[in-house]
Amino acid sequence: MHEWSLVKALIRQVDGIAREHDAVAVRQITIELGPLSGVEPELVRLAFRQVVDEATSSVAEDLSPRPLRDSWRNSLAENATLTIQEVPLIVRCIACDNENEVTDFIFRCDECGSGRVRVISGDEFRLLTITFDERLASV
Amino acid sequence: MSERTIVVNRDIQAERRAAANRFREKLTRSGTFVVNLVSSPGAGKTSLLEATCRYWKERWKVAVLVGDLATDRDAQRLRPFVPVEQLTTGGACHLELPLVEQGLAKLPDEKFDFLFIENIGNLVCPASHDLGEHLRVVLLSTTEGDDKPGKYPKMFRTSDIMLVTKTDLLPYVPFSVDRVTDDARLVREEMEVMSVSSLRDEGIDQWCQRLQTRREAMLVEVPSQ
Questions:
Q1: How many H helices and E strands in chain B?
Q2: What is the C-alpha separation between A95 and B109, in angstroms, rounded?
Q3: Which long-range CB contacts under 8 A does A105-108 form with residues at least 24 apart?
Q4: What is the ipTM of this complex?
Q5: How far is residue A37 CA from its own chain's centroid?
């Protein structure tokens, strides 16, 4: 289950951006996920809870390789909710330019039958938006 | 306190991808062709490397980074042939670039012609992690069944070569190289398919020749600096 490691990368980025903007706490994180990302939505949800819980616990056991440790501690995302937008797997045919959705991972153009298709959506694992509480500038 | 939403719209693995590209370019400049071997456990990655080293003997400078959850059994098998560094992940299901970089730093300080990374046996997680390799080879042994490419599309979609292993067992198992080739090409039309029996040293010459050709192609494209 590598979602753990990927969610840590996500939280590290969220924290970085939130701190840049002087955030106090992150409320919501929206990500986009495609079927070809190699990332399972359910496992991301599970890993997200575990990672933020662990990031805020001092007695956590961490099995990740040493270079990946520590940098995600003291997360501002402790109470954040994660919203996952799933995107369909769409290919464009190199021969006839037709676009169609791919189900069952059979990469074929449904117009001309060619297998030479380019994935135009479906491998996304993107951070879309972050909602946070910001400190009001003191007057 | 006030609430604010900002639009980021960024690939979560962008930093990791950029790091992998930097690693790849660095190794390209030093003439080291990096091969990431992925497969399920027991498909024959270590046996393939043993056979490859036997075939090449001293012809090329080869080094191996071996990923393992526990034990250094694979590293021990390869040590008689080439410099090997063990990457023990302590339970993780895949390798990531920082571990590879650490392993490389522990290898003897010389320019290798080929660096093989033997990934953790797993057809799922390693697919999503670019280790800065020039070539990703997915091994599929004849005992695993010829329906696997469609079942693990991400792994086969991200691999350059599918290497069918244990062909010496073909007479005894219901496995068809044609069927598996068709299945793999449904997820990746350009998939190159090769087959070997490491035990009998069959197909190893073509496999090694292919690696040499790919390395030569890399050398032609060396970024100037």
A1: 8, 8
A2: 48
A3: A105/A35, A105/A36, A105/B150, A105/B153, A105/B157, A105/B186, A105/B187, A106/B150, A106/B186, A106/B187, A107/B157, A107/B186, A107/B187, A107/B188, A107/B189, A108/B186
A4: 0.80
A5: 9
* Contact between B137 and B156 (Cβ < 8 Å): no
Instruction: Give all strands (DSSP E) within A87-124, no chain letters.
Output: 90-93, 99-101, 117-121
Subunit contact A135:B1, Cβ cutoff 8 A: yes
* DSSP single-letter state for residue B207: H
pLDDT in tens, A82-121: 999 999 999 999 999 999 999 888 888 999 998 888 889 9
Closest residue of chain B to A20, computed from CA coordinates: B6
Q: What is the pLDDT of residues B38-92, one digit of tens each?
A: 999 999 999 999 999 999 998 999 999 999 877 888 889 999 999 999 998 777 7
The two tokens of residue B101 are 């970089």
Name the B residues in 177-216 with CB < 8 Å from any A CB.
Answer: 185-189
Instruction: Name every chain A residue with its beta carbon within 8 A of the beta carbon of B99.
Output: 65, 67
Angle at B30 between CA B28 and CA B31, to 5 degrees: 65
